[in-house]
Amino acid sequence: MATVAAVALTTVGVMGASPVHAASSYYVNGLDPLFEQKLIDLGIDTTIDQELDLEKVEAVTSLNLTGLQSPQLTGLELFKNLQTLNLTDVNQLTYLYWYQNGARGQLSNLILSGNTALSSLAIVNHRLTSFSTVGLPALQSLSVDGNFLSSIDLSGSPLLSYLSVSQNRFSALAITNTPLLTNLNASDNLLTSVSVAGAPKLTELYASNNRLSTFSVSHPAVLERLSLSANRFSSLDLAAFTALRSLDVASNSLTSLSINGMGKLTTLRASTNKISTLSATGAPNLDSVSLDGNKLTTLDASLFPLVTSLNLGNNPLGSLALSNLPRLNELFIDNAKMSSLSLVNLASLASLNIGPAYSGNPSSITNLVVDQLPLLTSLNIEMTKTDSASIKATPILQFLSLANNNL
Fold first, then answer.
1. 299 bridge partner residues
2. What DSSP character marks residue 240?
3. What's the longest Cα–Cα distance across the chain?
4. Would you give the end-to-end CA distance of the chain in angstroms?
5. How far is 39 from 64, CA to CA, in rounded Å?
6. In Å, what is the CA distance from 387 to each residue of 244, 339, 343, 357?
7. 3-state helix, strand and coil shares in percent for the chain, rounded to the nearest 5
8. Cβ neighbours of residue 26 under 8 Å, at least 6 residues apart?
9. What are the Cα distances from residue 335, in Å, to 33, 297, 370, 384?
10. Residue 109 pLDDT > 80, yes or no?
11. What is the pLDDT of residue 3?
12. How far apart are CA 123 and CA 100, in angstroms?
C-alpha cells in the first residue's frame, strides 16, 4: 500500500521539523530516505539522517526529482524559494499537499507528467500561471487556490471529483470532460462566465465574489449547494434547481426572488439585495433565512414553518405575520415601518432583536406585544418609536434592553 505524503508549509517551520545541532539544520520527521538520497545526489544534502540544512534548502530555486520512487515528499515544504519543481514520473506518489501560509510562495513552474498514482494534489498560494492534469490519470482531488491561473487543462484526469480554483485570475471557466466532478469552487476570481456542461454529477458549486450577471447549468436538478453571492445579478431563474439544500445569492442587485418548489432547501441567504418580492411556495423545510438589507414591505413567515433563524434586518416592513413558527429561535427586525408588532406564542424563540444595527434608522413600531415566549432569554428593543410595550410570560428572560425608545 502506498504511503500518503502530506506536505504542510508554514513560513516559520514545518510540522515534524525542528532545529537541531547547527542553527540552520532542521530535523524532518518522516523524511523518506529515497527523497533524502536524491537531495544528496543533487548536492543539497550530505547524509541520510533526516536533517536538512536550511541555508542550502532555501537557496534552491529549481528542483528536478524526475523518476524519484519515494512514496512521500515530507520536507519539500522547506524549499520556500523554489520556483520550478519537476516531478515527472514520480509514480509512487499518491498525495501531495503544499500550502504556503503567509507570504505567497515562489513556485511558478510545476511539472507533473507521469504521476500515475497521484490521486490528491493541493498547491495553494503560489505563483502558478498554467496548470495541466495531462499525465495524472488517477487524480481525484485538485486544489490550486491562490495562484495566478487564468486557464486550466483538466483533460488528463477523468476521475476528478473535487476541484478548487478560487483566488485566481479566471475571467471565464469552462469545465469539460469531468464526468465524476461533484464539487467545484471558483470563488474570488474575475469570472464573467462559467460553464459546467462537462460535469453532469455536480452537486456543489461555489462562484461567489466574481463578475457574473448571467448563470445557467446543464444539469440544474442535480445541484444541492449553490453560492453566487457578491456578483452582478439583477435577476435569477432558479425554477429548475429543485434539489437545492443551500442557496446563497447575497450581495447582488436582485429585485425579486423565487424559490418555489425547492422542497429540500434548508438554508437561504439573500441579504443585501433590492428584493421587494419573495415567492417561497413549496419550500417548507427552510431552517435558516437571511433576508436583511432588502426592500421587503410584507412577509408571511408562515411559509417557513420549520425556520429557526430569521433575519429581516433593514427592510421597510409594513406588516409581518409570525404565526405557526414552533421552531423559531432567533429573530432580527430593523427599520420596520409597521406601527404595531405582536410576538405571541413562539414557543422556541430565545433571542429577539429589534434595533438599528443595519440602517441606523428607528423602526416605526409604537406598540409592541411580547407574550408567551417561554424560552426567551434575550430581548433587545433599541431605537424604535415604541411608547407602549407589553412583555409577559417570559419566565427565563435574562437580558432586556430598551434603549433609545419613547417609553
1. 320
2. T
3. 84
4. 73
5. 10
6. 44, 11, 16, 20
7. 5, 30, 65
8. 13, 14, 17, 18, 19, 20, 51, 52, 53, 54, 78
9. 67, 11, 19, 8
10. yes
11. 36
12. 8
Residue 150 backbone dihedrals phi, psi, to 5 degrees: -120, -5
CB 259 within 8 A of CB 238: yes
pLDDT at residue 389 above 70? no
CA distance 57 to 81: 8
Instruction: Express each pLDDT in 47-97 by its tens digit.
Output: 999 999 999 999 999 999 999 999 889 999 899 899 999 999 998 999 999
Name the pTM for this structure: 0.88
Instruction: Tell me the C-alpha distance between 65 and 48, whole Å.
Output: 17
* Side chain identity, residue 356: P
Per-residue confidence (pLDDT) for residue 405, from 0 to 100 = 64
Side chain identity, residue 6: A
Give kind and range of the element (H or E) at residue 391. Answer: strand 388-392
Cell 430593523 belongs to 334
Cβ atoms of residues 384 and 363 within 8 Å? yes
Cβ(230)–Cβ(251) below 8 Å: yes
- Segment 325-346 mean pLDDT: 82
180's grid cell: 465524476
Which pLDDT tens digit goes with each residue over 284-326? 999 999 999 999 999 888 889 999 999 998 898 888 878 788 9
DSSP string for 149-187: -S--B-TT-TT--EEE--SS--SEEE--S-TT--EEE--
* Non-local CB neighbours of 14 within 8 Å, separated by 6+ positions: 8, 26, 28, 75, 77, 78
Which residue is it, cell 509512487? 92
Strand partners, 141: 120, 162
Grid coordinates of 108: 511558478
Helices (H) and strands (E) in the chain, counts: 2, 31
- Contact residues for 241 (Cβ-Cβ < 8 A; gap 6+): 220, 221, 223, 226, 247, 262
To which residue does cell 474575475 refer? 190
Closest CA to 36 of 44, 3, 10: 44
* Backbone angles phi and psi of 220, in degrees to 5: -65, -30
Burial of 366 (0-12, 13-18, 19+ CB in 10 A): middle
Cα 199 from Cα 184, distance rounded (Å): 10
